[in-house]
């Protein structure tokens, strides 16, 4: 139930709909109960023997209220008085009056029932929307370190399947909170008015059924949790399959992945069967308990009518209608308890993402930095992803307008520098300063606004060329977009496309070649026009021809900018102002290309291992 109350917090913005829902439900429950009470005078008109004119005249005297214990008699006498006053001894006229009263009561009941559902639609769908938006927002706020420990498919499952599970299991219970308890309260009041002894059985039944149902539903949360986790696993396999389909086919691994998917699907099948079979017990159990209590009421009520004669037949029939009326909300509540148990696991998985702390959250008084003026300083920093440090006591100063290249073997810590300057991760020791300000004291948004990033993998989106480029500059004009493409050496092939910059490039840009995609990612960084560029092995995945075109684009882009170039192919960084050689997370050499070649050290060995064009 704790998770249910957590979900209720999201209903606060829609409290005006909740008020309308509750008021409509109060009136719905009231008219629903009165509609059964209205049956008593109708049954009296239908089944009582024709009364003499003298009896009618006697009944025309207005009844007097004699206390709560005689409320049923007072109600019957009051109704009879007004019916007889209107109809005199004409039973057809009396019947028409009572039937009209019942029609009006049922009409009002259904009008307010519709209004209650009308308000609930906005409340329920609003909660689902806000919850889904909150989970997505938190997902994109969390640091990259969080996703390195999670399966993408499982996160997708939480944002989609788990929210859908809440929508169809836990959130419908919001409709029951006001309506069903009010129905029970009003119905019990009417039942007490008719016969307190009979109503005693109802008070025994409600807690008894609650105990039985809760015992059956105890394992629902655990079973639901297994189903949702397995759905996450299925999505993970599907995501991996679609991402790596070229490799799967190339290595003839279709059967292996098919087997893996079928195993997960079979587990989901077994877990779902157990969950839904347990859930299906709710309806038959509550229905059996309902018919059991109705049978007891029939037996005991029959005794009161036929033997004790303390209850008349018309009141007993109306009472049985009320007893049935109380079974409907009781059954709905029991079903709601089952749904809460099922939705509890989904809510817990969603709340787990929402409650995950963000270690990279902006400091309380973080500075909004709008410019880059002097230098970047890496002040004796050390960093580890898990147990071993990948950077150790790293110190470097990059003056404004200079190009610094980081080289070294794989695993030497080059790309880690890019992750740290962009604050995808925080350093474990030391500080990174921009213009003398620790980047932890700068808002993440304004820090990244100063940076342009071009990675080895050109990450593009299923949209037009223009919208891909405008990712970092929403206000850019078409002319600025075209100019950035020219700087990136990409306009030549884009202007030949049928729709030009409006051309959709497909999922991950798969309609373009590797070199074309990389030049678009360079153009995107150029259009953002940041003072600092971070190039993380931007040419390492390209063929020679594409590399030449991209290299020209990079040189155009780096003019008059501060650049941090992480290079695998050393031919691309010979003109850098300073080259820093990394080995096992530490600086072993630094200087210009010529100076390092003259040293005959690590850098020269790296150069000799590669062929220059």
UniProtKB/TrEMBL annotation:
One of its GO terms (cellular component) is plasma membrane. Keywords: ATP-binding, Membrane, Nucleotide-binding, Transmembrane, Transmembrane helix, Transport. Residues 376-609 form the ABC transporter domain. The chain crosses the membrane at residues 20-40, 94-116, 182-213. Its main location: membrane. Residues 22-342 form the ABC transmembrane type-1 domain. SMART domains: AAA. It is a multi-pass membrane protein. PROSITE patterns: ABC_TM1F, ABC_TRANSPORTER_1, ABC_TRANSPORTER_2. One of its GO terms (molecular function) is ATP binding. Pfam families: ABC_membrane, ABC_tran. CDD domains: ABC_6TM_MsbA_like (cd18552). It comes from the Bacteria. It is found in: Cell membrane. This is Antibiotic ABC transporter ATP-binding protein. It comes from Pseudalgibacter alginicilyticus.
